[in-house]
Amino acid sequence: MDKIKFVDQTIRLAQQGLWGFMMRTDHIEPIAEVMDQVGYQAIGTVGGNGFVVESRNLQENPWERVRILSKLVKRTPLRGSYQIWGLADFDQNTPRDIITLWIKRSIANGIKGFWICDYQTDMEKFMYFARIAKAEGAEVVVSLVYASSPYHTNEHWAHKTQLIAQAKEYVDSIQIGDPGGVLRPEDTREFIATLQRNCNGIPIEIQCQASSGLAPLTYLEAIKAGVRTVHTAVAPLANGTSMPSTENILKNAKRLGFTSDIDEDVLATESNHFRQIAEREGFPIGVPMEYDLYYFEHQVPGGMMTNLTRQLREVGMEHRLDEILEEIVRVRKDFGYPIMATPYSQMVGAQAADNIISGERYKQVTDATVKYMLGFYGEPAGPIDQNVKDKILSTPRGKQLANWQPENYLKSVEEIRGELGPNLSDEELLLKLMVPGGFVKPTDSKKTAKRSAGKPTLPTNNPAEFLSEFNVDVDGEVYRVKISPLWDGSGEEGATIQAEAAPKKAKKEAAEGAVTAGMAGLVLSFEVNVGDTVKAGDLVAMIEAMKMRRHLNCPHGGVVKEICAQIGEIVEPQDVLMVVA
């Protein structure tokens, strides 16, 4: 009898989709040994974007989490991830040796395999890193990301699969990725049959988001078509913007006559643990989504929809969401129907919002959009509208980047270390590159990562209004969340409160000559110093919003009197970044 294998995504993709990467190490550590006994094929752990949130928002050392897990999870392989273009962004300028260092340090700390976020747009680069991972003894699982458009045909998928098959010696399995949840059950069998005919015997796994409500049905069709490895999460962290539950898929697979290695009693223990965490922390528990036909037109991933809605609300334009969704459909067509997954979904969404808010299509463009038109993100499935491409490349920024090349790509680790800090360890160097505003050092991790596992209580002398709203950077997108302090009555209250504090905020007083952020995002750099003279239109700062690097140009001329924010700080549209008068 055929056996279905399960990859547990509870502490990786599921907590990203439902809890915004806010799962702490002390949420996982007490249940880790139990998870190891459930019978999973692998357990997914966070990659670069999760590291950013752990360090910046949870004040934890993410490398220490990996080490803790690897000591407790001894039987089940831990599966991490890496991207071929960077650590936690997609700027295409991350040095090759830095990505190599990430792979090697991950393996040294206990990662046994990698899911590769890849779109078969640069197979030479893919094979370069896959060869390194395999040489270090790791399993390599490459993603084949699904999308729907007039150009995503069986022929398209056959070609993508053949590219992966040509690298078979470096690939252990192919993971169907459906971040938008747009793979319909009725299309699943034919899609998988196409992959099977062209994969040269490479095993196939499936991982679909449940955003459209169809993923549980799609999984069953995939199983009927021959897929034997599915990605799921325990019920409290399943469904919604997560993925199908292990309990549901296991039950239905058994009804179809399949077996598994899952110990259902141990699974129930894991599920109950995370349900208690959700109830204790006020985290959402996933519920099935209602079917929405419009979703298959714009294909905006759930997390991105949340971020887009929030940003529009902050600038008083939430009522224009439907216009922007319609524009997303048009922009995606203009761009040649790219896959609606990172980084392409952010490019399309950010450009559509700019088009509507500015009142003119492609008047403002991001660096990533320009580089996309220059071919740095590969060829899309369909043709790019030539008029749109010409307009984008003729913008001031388009002209500035016309001859751009990733000049840092071949820099050595030691060159980068020399620039950022000669005394940084390898792990500190990687964190500094991912978290420009600061990171938790390994020696400091125990001060902030350890919290009480018991039911939290507020200090009696703590003000009731301590429950606060924070902006949290999740996978390059900024969300507003509420966080309650944890304190069990022991230790110093101040230390606990400090560990939960938000980054220092830019001041909001609109002084004369104030230059505001104009968007919610992360401050990447300041291009001027106090005392510099600038003209109206000069570039003064760079902000990352929706994973897009955005230029902040000074609205007026003058002398820079004060810089009011910090690199690495999360800002809101009304925050003052500097004063120019």
Task: Write a brief structural summary.
With 581 residues, this protein is α/β, with parallel strands linked by helices.
**CATH-level-4 superfamily name of the largest domain:** Aldolase class I
Mean pLDDT: 86
Poorly predicted segments: 443-471, 473-504
How helix-rich are the residues, as a percent range? 25-40%
Q: How many β strands by DSSP?
A: 18
- Tell me the radius of gyration: 23 Å
State the helix count: 23
Oligomer status: single chain
CATH architecture of the largest domain: Alpha-Beta Barrel
Top CATH class of the largest domain: Alpha Beta
Query: What general outline do the C-alpha atoms trace?
Result: globular
Question: How is the main sheet built?
Answer: 8 strands, parallel, barrel
Integer count of domains: 3
In spatial order, strands of the major sheet run 1-2-3-4-5-6-7-8
Properties at a glance:
581 residues; alpha/beta; TIM Barrel; Cyclin A, domain 1; OB fold (Dihydrolipoamide Acetyltransferase, E2P); 3 domains; 4-stranded antiparallel sheet; globular
